[in-house]
């Protein structure tokens, strides 16, 4: 929408329900994992849509029924989820080798502008944190994707606090925490240690000069195609077969991230001029 100069918070988002669902879409997850996962998906629609639009997402069927069948649009934009940024990887999230993953090259400004747009829409001020703070996402051991569990993160938290004298927050789940609070917490932190998956996408809202350390218990660098092109943060990628990582290696990355933020970014206000004050 930004590329066509049609960015409008009052846009109506319409979702097509396909007979053969696109892999990893909510319809696919409903078919593969049942009602529990469907409820999670619908909850995400409800909580995340206000970041983009003032209107709830409608299905094509419900939208056309509301207006008596045929609908004429003054303006309409159409696209396919995940196909725009996954490049030749399709819906692989980084699984495929020998294909291009660099379709976000040159889109760094758009990726950052999305961050500013969302923060403006929900009323979170964009201000550089006055000091370092670390957030760790420690996926709950009973998560339905147990193969993505990373071991030893509480011990890493203790070591960071002891050796670097930096505050560390650790979350096992983001569920139940309002999205505005999640974004505010992330925008007030300077380092994020995370595994791959949906819980890592909140890192989009890290501030300028921050560091994201992505630890991969899976065999591929999941979501590399997106986070590698974030212009406002430094991103590290760590292999962790079986969920076990080299603590000294990650500790060194955290220490460098603290040093980088301290020496290259003064904690002065960078408030979005269109932003609203926090509530």
Secondary structure layout plus pairing:
Blueprint: E1 14-15, H1 26-33, H2 35-48, E2 58-59, H3 60-66, H4 108-122, E3 133-137, H5 153-164, E4 167-171, H6 179-187, E5 191-194, E6 210-216, H7 224-227, E7 233-239, H8 247-264
Parallel strand pairs: 1-2, 3-4, 3-5, 5-6, 6-7
Helix pairs in contact: 1-2, 5-8
Radius of gyration over C-alpha positions, nearest whole angstrom: 20 Å
Q: State the major sheet.
A: 5 strands, parallel
Low-pLDDT residue spans: 269-279
Please tell me what the overall shape is: globular
Continuous helix count: 8
Helix fraction bin: 25-40%
Quaternary structure classification = single chain
Percentage of β-strand residues: 5-15%
Please, what is the average pLDDT? 86
Number of strands: 7
Order of helices and strands: EHHEHHEHEHEEHEH
In order across it, which strands form the biggest sheet? 4-3-5-6-7
**What is the straight-line distance between the termini?**
29 Å
Q: Structural class from helices and strands?
A: alpha/beta
């Amino acid at each position: 929408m930004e590329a066509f100069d049609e960015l409008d918070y009052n846009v109506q988002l319409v979702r097509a329900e396909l007979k053969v669902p696109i892999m990893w879409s909510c319809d696919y997850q409903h078919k593969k994992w049942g009602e529990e996962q469907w409820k999670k998906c619908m909850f995400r629609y409800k909580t995340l849509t206000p970041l983009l639009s003032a209107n709830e997402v409608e299905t094509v069927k419900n939208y056309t029924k509301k207006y008596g069948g045929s609908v004429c649009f003054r303006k309409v934009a159409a696209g396919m989820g995940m196909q725009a940024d996954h490049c030749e990887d399709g819906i692989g999230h980084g699984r495929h080798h020998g294909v291009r993953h660099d379709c976000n090259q040159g889109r760094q400004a758009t990726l950052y502008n999305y961050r500013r747009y969302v923060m403006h829409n929900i009323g979170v001020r964009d201000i550089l944190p006055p000091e370092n703070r670390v957030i760790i996402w420690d996926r709950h051991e009973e998560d339905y994707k147990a193969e993505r569990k990373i071991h030893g993160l509480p011990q890493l938290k203790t070591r960071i606090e002891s050796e670097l004298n930096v505050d560390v927050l650790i979350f096992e789940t983001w569920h139940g925490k309002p999205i505005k609070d999640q974004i505010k917490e992330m925008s007030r932190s300077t380092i994020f240690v995370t595994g791959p998956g949906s819980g890592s996408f909140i890192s989009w809202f890290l501030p300028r000069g921050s560091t994201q350390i992505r630890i991969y218990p899976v065999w591929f660098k999941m979501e590399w195609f997106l986070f590698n092109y974030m212009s406002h943060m430094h991103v590290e990628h760590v292999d962790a077969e079986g969920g076990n990582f080299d603590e000294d290696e990650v500790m060194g990355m955290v220490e460098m991230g603290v040093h980088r933020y301290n020496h290259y970014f003064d904690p002065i206000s960078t408030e979005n001029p269109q932003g609203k004050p926090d509530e």
